[in-house]
Write a structure and sequence with these properties.
Layout: H1 4-18, E1 22-28, H2 41-45, E2 50-56, E3 59-64, E4 69-73, E5 79-84, E6 105-112, E7 119-124, E8 131-135, H3 160-167, H4 174-178, H5 189-198, H6 219-238, E9 280-284, E10 287-291
Antiparallel strand pairs: 1-6, 2-3, 3-4, 4-8, 5-7, 6-7, 9-10
Helix pairs in contact: 1-6, 3-6, 5-6
């Protein structure tokens, strides 16, 4: 499933075409994705102008000129592509082939950008785990998909002090606490593994140990906060992780996966200089966790 850096990459790919554009019409190829599309989906979007395109955790949010917001989630295999005029298909070098079957082109937005010619933004999703829902005017923060989400793992808001406050007294494994969306919004399995490796912290460690007995942040908390911010920023800069079934809005793929230090590297040498150990895998909450038992304590 695309993680936060992939979703942010998609947002940046769509933004030049979608932000400020007028949606002239909408073509629906089926009545549902993961959830049924609203019965008035096409009618409410047609004629509207996209004021802004933002991201909250792993959700894309298109704010419209009438106050309505369109919330999109890519699910397991969803992707957007842009087609305009003489340019069709999805240009870019592919590491993993994406679906080109038009049967999976479920939603088509016909848009007229503020500058440029009319284009189509096509949502393709072979597995149909993605979805598109509306949030009514003034109710975005209260929408069931967004309400209760924690802090974003980007920017300086996530620091050692905040991590220690979030995890204080928690006996859950550190990896599980990192992926609790009520605490940190959008941090997924890949980058949780990578951040823990960088911070030299075991995924099995109790989350509460990041605080001192007085509740103050420890050096572990500071290291982990810095590692989370860094790995997310680097992944966004590199264009995402290029996992199977994931593509950018223009069809190209990032290659951050080539610099993974532990994720999906079971049995391979640890990348840390002088370590000499090998990467192990364990299952936590039904997800694979990759870590170095020698470096991470």
């Amino acid at each position: 499933m695309p993680e936060l850096p992939e979703v942010e990459t998609v947002r940046r790919g769509l933004q030049p075409v979608l932000e400020g554009a007028r949606i002239t019409s909408v073509t629906l190829r089926r009545p549902d994705l993961r959830f049924p599309l609203p019965s008035d989906f096409a009618a409410r979007l047609s004629g509207r102008t996209v004021v802004s395109l933002s991201r909250r955790a792993k959700f894309l949010v298109a704010q419209l000129d009438d106050g309505l917001a369109l919330i999109c989630h890519l699910g397991m295999s969803g992707s957007f592509r842009i087609e305009d005029g003489d340019s069709s298909g999805t240009p870019g070098a592919f590491h993993h082939e994406r679906s080109k079957d038009e049967a999976h082109d479920h939603v088509v937005l016909h848009v007229l950008p503020a500058e440029g010619r009319e284009a189509k933004i096509i949502f393709n999703d072979p597995r149909r785990f993605g979805f598109m829902l509306f949030a009514e005017k003034g109710a975005l923060g209260a929408h069931p998909m967004l309400a209760g989400l924690g802090v974003e793992p980007t920017g300086n808001a996530l620091d050692g002090r905040l991590l220690s406050q979030l995890f204080n007294g928690k006996k859950a494994p550190l990896k599980a606490a990192l992926m609790d969306q009520r605490l940190i919004a959008g941090l997924g399995n890949i980058y949780a593994c990578e951040a823990l490796w960088r911070a030299r912290l075991s995924p099995r460690r109790a989350a509460g140990t990041l605080s001192s007995r007085e509740g103050k942040p420890s050096q572990r908390a500071e290291r982990l906060a810095e590692a989370i911010r860094a790995v997310i920023a680097e992944a966004i800069g590199a264009g995402g992780s290029s996992l199977r079934d994931y593509v950018h809005a223009d069809g190209s793929l990032g290659y951050f996966q080539h610099s993974f230090d532990v994720y999906d590297r079971e049995g391979q040498p640890c990348h840390r200089a002088g370590c000499g150990s090998t990467v192990k895998r364990l299952v936590q909450s039904g997800r694979s966790t990759f870590y170095c038992p020698h470096c991470q304590r």
